Amino acid sequence: MAEKETPPIILQFAPLNSSVDEGFWHSFSSLKLDKLGIDDSPISITGFSGPCSHPQVSNHLTLLSESLPLEEESLIGTTSHGNRNKCPVPGILYNTNTVESFNKLDKQSLLKAEAKKIWEDIQSGKALEDSSVLSRFLVISFADLKKWSFRYWFAFPALVLDPPVSLIELKPASEYFSSEEAESVSAACNDWRDSDLTTDVPFFLVSVSSDSKASIRHLKDWEACQGDHQKLLFGFYDPCHLPSNPGWPLRNYLALIRSRWNLETVWFFCYRESRGFADLNLSLVGQASVTLSSGESAETVPNSVGWELNKGKRVPRSISLANSMDPTRLAVSAVDLNLKLMRWRALPSLNLNVLSSVKCLLLGAGTLGCQVARTLMGWGIRNITFVDYGKVAMSNPVRQSLYTFEDCVGRGEFKAVAAVKSLKQIFPAMETSGVVMAIPMPGHPISSQEEDSVLGDCKRLSDLIESHDAVFLLTDTRESRWLPSLLCANANKIAINAALGFDSYMVMRHGAGPTSLSDDMQNLDINKTNTQRLGCYFCNDVVAPQDSMTDRTLDQQCTVTRPGLAPIAGALAVELLVGVLQHPHGINAKGDNSSLSNTGNNDDSPLGILPHQIRGSVSQFSQITLLGQASNSCTACSETVSFSF
């Protein structure tokens, strides 16, 4: 009795899944609102994929903000190549203006149109030159920008071969190759992936010679590979992690192989990775039988399938981004990303809550004030108050980064007001305010009619310092820093001073006030950490501050400095503040010397040394750190002055 013939095993492919980053919807919303309007023409987009890199998780085709073209008229998006984790895949987006139009879309016709493109690319040979076209995809969507909700549906068109492909065998690649071959194949794959020219080429040939040497070649080199190999496999980046199924890209790959080379038996290599390197235990090698159809022709496009299932059902997906889609909230998330990444490895002990909650008072909104404000924002500091009495002049915008030409036309905007507006434009989540006020200065005579106004300014300045955690002294004159220095010492506030010469700068932090150690700081052994208070800006003066503004020439009236000084000094001033905020002793931290950076004796500060003063010269390209103790005769921070005040 004749044995029954075993029916062939139909090769089953693991479906491809999609993933859409929130940034894509944000970028698309801007494109729709600002440029597209009601234009519902198809938009060429770029998806990103790659080989599976985890034994239990498949890779997805992902849409990012960069998936959209730079110009809405562009039919092909501008995409950077050479990123091993972001292999570009061409796609098209059909966005409708109404939900009714979305529901009425002829999805089968759209799928057939994309499948036809794939078939034409196979017949024309384009797929050999750019194999990514084998993985074309399409997305249909409806964006409800009033509610920030999005309905969308992916399709990954796959040509249906008739008769279907049958599986002869499938095994881990490590079991198919000998140990010598496996080592050579792994090395060749790693070289292919490490090269910027080939890392994002998803389909390729694996040739293994009789001496167990492997090489990876482009599909267009298939003819050249004939006769010089013992094994020839058709490799592809497999996004699937399953041990018994190849991924979805193999479907169109087999259609290409059958149509171009008329092969009936195909060895394929499902390339998968682990930790960025080839993993032949995870990768698969299979043999498939591709039976040629007698009636097949280049003009006849095969049937196609490919609409993505949503939890097993043929329905679209939807997402509501009402909370996270607000641009301000997205900006907060993006701005905080760099700081949060610092905590991963570089600074695990970085206290972000301290930075986000600190309130900074900037006395002076000129060249230094603009630089300090920008750097504070970079450190995640959200609350900034400006105090300045000047207006934006025509000469300011090129040196003072918060101002533009529009701020100085006419009579000019007050700097304190313009700076606030600029910060809000840069980052809408800033809590910032501006105070237009002149700081009372010693040595400047006032009339009897001005006494009440000046006393009011003194009270107002005192209240501002009391309500902030850190004060930056960034004004143009020395005497304008005296009263703030005194008030900061009296209130025990962190005071950071930055001053510029023509080609030199000085940045320093004032020490704690003479009488305002808090109860918890009194519990510290201050004698071990700081034998004496650090000095302030006026501790080395032998005379009281005087009027330095009267009878001055134009170059003496203006802050004439080399343009590179303010960014340097402003950045150092902010770094000093952050160092104080992160130091366990805070304002009472002792002054470190730069030599500590080589001795490793500064374990208290996670950011490195915390100096008292930094002085630098760009004419000599030099910088030194100095330490100065508080003077008992200081006109700004001594106990005598503080008590009398």
From TrEMBL:
E1-like activating enzyme involved in the 2 ubiquitin-like systems required for autophagy. Belongs to the ATG7 family. GO terms for biological process: autophagosome assembly; autophagy of mitochondrion; cellular response to nitrogen starvation; piecemeal microautophagy of the nucleus; protein modification by small protein conjugation; protein transport. GO terms for cellular component: phagophore assembly site. Keywords: Autophagy, Cytoplasm, Protein transport, Transport, Ubl conjugation pathway. GO terms for molecular function: Atg12 activating enzyme activity; Atg8 activating enzyme activity. It comes from the Eukaryota. Transmembrane segments: none annotated. It comes from Arabidopsis suecica. This is Ubiquitin-like modifier-activating enzyme ATG7.
